[in-house]
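User: I'm putting together a teaching handout on how multi-component assemblies are represented. Below are the sequence lines for each component of a complex, exactly as they appear in our records. Could you produce the 3D structure of the whole assembly as structure tokens, so the students can see both representations side by side? Please keep the chain order the same as the input.
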Amino acid sequence: MGGGVTRQIARFVPAVLLALLLLGPLLALLVRWLTSADNVSLLAFINTSTLLLVGKSLLLSGIVAILASIIGTICGFLLYRLKFLFRGFYKMLLLLPLLVPPYIFAVAWKDGFQWLFGINSAINPEIGMIIVHSLVLFPLAMLITGTALSQIHSGLEEAGLMRVSFRRMLTKIILPLIRPALTISFLLILIISLSDFSVPAFFGVNTFTTEIFTQFSAFYNHQLAISQSFLLVLLCLMLLLSENKYLSDAPFFSVHVKGSSTKHYSVSKGKTILHILLWILLVVVLVLPIVMLFHQALSGREIFFSRAWELLSPTIFQSAKLAFLGALLISATGLWVAYLKERSRFPHLNTMLLLTFIIPSTVLGVAVIKFYNQPATNFIYTTILILLITYVARFGFIAARIIGNGIKQIPGSLEEVARVIGIPPVKRFFSISIPLLLPSLFTAFVLSFVLCLGELGTTIMIYPPGTELMPVKIFTIGANAPLALTSSMTLISFGVTMLFILAFFLTGKIIFNRFRYE
Amino acid sequence: MNKISLEHITHHYGEKKVLDNFSCSFEEAKNTSIIGPSGCGKTTMLRLIAGLEVPQKGIIKIDETVATENEKILLPPHKRKIGFVFQDLALWPHFTIFRNIAFGLKDGKGGKVSPQVNQILDLFGIADKTRKYPHQLSGGQKQMVAIARSLVHQPEIFLMDEPLANIDVKVKEEILAHIKHLKQQLGFTMLYVTHDHQEAMQTGDKILVMNEGVIEAAGTQKEIGNSNNHFVRSFIKL
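Assistant: Of course. Below is the structure of the complete assembly, with chains in the same order as your input.
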């Protein structure tokens, strides 16, 4: 009895604390919105311009979601279901844009447009935003649909191929089977595009997210920013609820999908065309942005490069340190939340992380400032703790799902057999579960690290005094500096990110080889 | 004397009732084979006896001591002196064969070869595999390791959940012979779950035929062979 109560307390007290830290700001924001409307209708801010802005944001993000889903689904099929040389190489490189902060691509393409079409180019910033978001987010659709395609048992397709043509089997069997993945990739890209601050901000596109930032940070119209935030949260929630079940399990965030024997189709004809197409995509997605950054950076002569290094170098260590701490905290939280969901049938914290994951960055920024800017919580508000809490809120869900899907692949019997022979729970956890989860834990850590390193939307609103971070520095300097300087800084930031990714990739290779048991 | 007793056990997974007011007992040092179609409650019964699951109603006694009563575990799994061989064998993939067997033994730390472990490795003919990992072994060798791991703790009750599924007849016969030999040596009470009636007849002093959470028939090979129960006759194809 006593042990049971202690166990319950040990489980629920940290859960309540986490909920308070992450959901508290959002609930407080809701209360603030409901109680301080100055006797004016709560919905008074909804006027023609607001509705037009909502419509514009939805339209832009909708186009992005359609384009990215189409490109991603095609790539998903090509790279996950066809058998050809260098498949892994293409997959790895095409997933790279997901790991690089989107603002880097935004600066590169903005440079590119100016380089190609001149400063007063007719290229609309909105088109720039659509291009960058589509190119940065299509790998997500590729990952989601590719994972779903990998989980279709070969027997289902072979049974179909006995009766109908490949094309008919594709439309009548494969596509309906991956329908949830297609829906979720569309919705997720829509939500992420709608929530992103960095790309529209760099292009100077007024979207709902940038508008909230402007109202809050430039015009100090907190009431309007809060009201707009709620409209955006409501939009995201409506999108989330339509596919909540599939999204909360997020099978696509996993290191290794075990089980089904997938059918791989060999490419006999058209191999050359396939390679050419994939190379064109690689050039557009990766090579071109880097070339454009280099071109712009070097056009300003060496002086800009050394100035960029001078400005950015003090931020590199601090950014890396913060990203490291953030990734540690996110991974630990993710492990705990995933364990509660998968092994203790306590999914509520996972749902909470899903909710904070879909909250747009600037909305989270507003909520966190309003909640923690109090005398009692000054120790959080004025230190890096506020950034760490926000990072957990923003990226904890991804880590929890990567680790959760890893836990799902460990048969419960491995822990049960240890239980039967009397291995204590802590020893069971560290001797059996953790070693088997190492690849998932490592992936969650790496992904969290790069996401924290490039986070801008919330960080720019809440970074405490004395903290200098790479993306914030580039954004603030970039507002008034020559393009060559911004490009040089972005190129350095890209180089730093790639160095970290390379280091993690090499470490990951060792970990994955050492801890692969098949 | 009854080694294990299940009294009025009701257990369900969500809406699905697996065992309903189920009672049965198992005599000490006897082999009982439990057969029945998939989903009839065989595995659930083993898991309840091991204390890995808690029934919604009923009492489970081990050595006349109440181990589980009405949703409460009174005797935790490791104090039930049980060896459990799971259907998927549950070999720890990141441990060597030696560590798989020695894990949890007090003198098995630091890679020191304990005599207890060596003895069981020799007995199962896998002494030369100690440095290998489970994925480097054949199906039959994995089964041997899983059984050896359960027996190294010298259990009084040995639960086997279809451990010999998907292996060839020759290896199966070899393993069954090992188990018989060990049974005579150690004198444990064995519950052997299978869906193969020939394996059940070969292994059990007593056979229990289950269907939809109910015992259709129980008795010796001969008694089961003479059973008039329609389900038993059709399932065993008498």
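A couple of points students might notice: Helices of chain B lie at 42-50, 97-102, 115-123, 139-151, 169-186, 197-203, 221-225, 230-236. The interface with chain A takes residues 50, 52, 77-80, 82-84, 86-88, 90, 92-94, 103-104, 133-135, 149, 153 of chain B (CB under 8 Å).
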